[in-house]
Amino acid sequence: MKLINKISSLNLIFVSISCLILPFSSSVWADATAKLTTQEHLSWDSSYNSTTKQRFIPVELFTGGKWDGSHKLTLKEATTTACPTVDNRPNSCVNTFVTGPFKTQTNDTKIDWAGDQISYYKRTFSTRRMGDIESHFTINNSKDGLVRIYDKRKRWGNRTYNGLGSKFPLGYWKQGEVRRYPSHRPTSIEILELNGPNNCLTFRWIIELPEGRKGRNSDNNYTFCPGRGFTDVSHNYVKNDAKK
């Protein structure tokens, strides 16, 4: 009986501690935005112009780094960690690291403005299904987005890209706007929520399948928030049949 009472007491303590820890853990990322300074909050609030219905999206929204409010696209030093949830599943967040900028030895892309070398961020994460993934991002040739110029993962091996597409919108965008990019597989970005709660941004990113090819295209919704960076990804499982 004493043993049972001790076990019950331990269980009660464990439950009590869990009740304290779980709310704390779930609020860590929510509190990240609250830790922004007053000036940073003002900068993010003023990124949206209610008159023109436009928002300026800086590189710092992608990295989760500090932003001074200037409407310029620059790759400033960043060493940040995000934990985006996947398809809104509890406990599904994946630690995602952004570091840089680094520089390529040569420019083998079609990004004309970059010169002989390209400054880029390295983003890394790992999942049980896909293993370790490393991607390199820079400002695209049209200067309205961040584009992936290199990707390494078990499923694909090493891949390089020409820099004409986009993976994350930058600069001035409007609610509902759609832009298409002439990469080797046509890509589009659609703004789903330009300036949501806490100045978060949600957009849809689609890579079309080559004409005549069956399968599933890449069709995902992404959310990024000030001071946090990448916070959520959800997959739009749409099957793309071959065109007749």
How many domains comprise the coordinates?
1
| Percent strand | 35-45%
Structural class based on helices, strands and sheet pairing:
alpha+beta
Please count the beta strands (DSSP E, at least 2 residues each).
18
Question: Which consecutive residue ranges, at least 5 long each, have pLDDT under 50?
Answer: 1-30, 239-244
Mean pLDDT: 84
**Approximate shape:** globular
Number of helices in the DSSP assignment:
3
Radius of gyration over C-alpha positions, nearest whole angstrom? 21 Å
- How is the biggest beta sheet arranged? 7 strands, antiparallel
How helical, in percent, are the residues? 10-25%
Short description:
This protein has 244 residues and is an alpha+beta fold.
Supply the key terms:
single chain, 244 residues, alpha+beta, seven-stranded antiparallel sheet, six-stranded mixed sheet, 19% helix, globular, disordered N terminus
